[in-house]
Amino acid sequence: MILIIDDDIAVRTSLLLLLQQAGYEAAGVSTPEEALLSIRANPPALVLLDLNFSIDTSGKEGMTLLKQIRQQQAALPVILITGWGSIALAVQGMKLGANDFISKPWNNDNILQSVKTLLQLQHKTTHHTRKQLDGLYNFQHIIGEDPKMMDILETIGRVAATDASILIMGESGTGKELIAEAIHQNSTRRNKPFIKVNLGGISTSLFESEMFGHVRGAFTDARYDRTGRFEMAHKGTIFLDEIGDLDSSSQVKLLRVLQDRTYEVLGSSRTKVVDTRVVCATNKNLHEMVALGTFREDLLYRINLITIRLPALRERPKDIPLLVNGFIHNLREMYSRPALNVTSDAMKWLQQLPLPGNIRQLKNLVERAILVSKTDQLDTAAFRSQLELSPVKTGNIQLPGVGTITLEELEVGMIRKAMMFHHNKIAKAAVSLGITRSALYRRLDKYNIPYDETSD
């Protein structure tokens, strides 16, 4: 049963009708006192709570009731209902344990989507073996049997079928994009578009055009209509990578579309509705950024109904042999060397490395070792040679030894080297770097590395 708590009879009646037509059992009460009595007598599966009662618009009554509900039922899903002007109030409610918030005037589909998602997330998690998970879900591209990764796969399997917003956090190279793709592939939207957006590579001036599109003549260089990323992702999933790099003005624009599920194409006054699942990723600590005032708290609560924290590779060393063998399996065919193998001593040595670049760095290390090794039996020396402290010259730039440069500088250097080695062929450079072509394009744009779009 879903309990609606609102003093406005019109709101209660509207929500009761909406939920009952959708097949839910629902009831409504008008006062905090009635609400608490109802929750004690007949604990509901979910609560829709308006923050304002009677003539009081401060939200204090709603906040007090939320605290009391949490004291009675700590795990009971609660959706707050508030006006757009009271989003700050809703954020306070999220801190007190609310699960989601809906703005007035609401969209019926959005409310039903939120209700469905939160009810599905209440289902208890069943622990499976990796073989069982592979039988239940499409996780074929994710390598790992570490308990931390198993918990993540269980979570993905449980939430993929919902429309819950998901925030993936983790260091660079931990596989955030791979996890986002797995969420999409195991969702009901799997046959619809999966649109990847590198927010760190979009300038403030181009944000609206890139995300929402523009019509011809909207600005000086707008010579043709452009379809925005949200429109491309309609009915599918949009993956907002590096969301921690988004500037403050763009954060506001993103919040509005995530909140209202509507947007306007630049240069047009016609409002468009978007139906898309939102998955975000970052290697930054957004909570620290909120404390520093560089990331909006209301946006953070809007994007992280579910948070997935990917462990660094050094935190799951037992998965390193699985990953290395997976890389070797693919590279045998790529380099026509079917006898490629790694010695047991070399594998143990790899498990001791700090690998600040995580899976991406490990893959690059394995491939470089194959390229320089004259034998198919890769020993410790073959890998150690790629981690020497002597500087490595890459075209016009010089990469210092490990520990003397940042990961970003190392990435830029490796990209330049790959582009030079493969004569600017995007597909070949991407394969050698262990990333997709779209990922390489994003990094070329991010680091302002010139390339010829026709060279691929």
From TrEMBL:
CDD domains: AAA. It comes from Chitinophaga defluvii. Residues 142-371 form the Sigma-54 factor interaction domain. This is Sigma-54 dependent transcriptional regulator. Keywords: ATP-binding, Nucleotide-binding, Phosphoprotein, Transcription, Transcription regulation. The keyword Hydrolase does not apply. Residues 1-119 form the Response regulatory domain. The keyword Protein transport does not apply. InterPro entries: AAA+_ATPase, AAA_lid_NorR, CheY-like_superfamily, Homeodomain-like_sf, HTH_Fis, P-loop_NTPase, Sig_transdc_resp-reg_receiver, Sigma_54_int. It comes from the Bacteria. PROSITE patterns: RESPONSE_REGULATORY, SIGMA54_INTERACT_1, SIGMA54_INTERACT_2, SIGMA54_INTERACT_4. The modification 4-aspartylphosphate is found at D50.
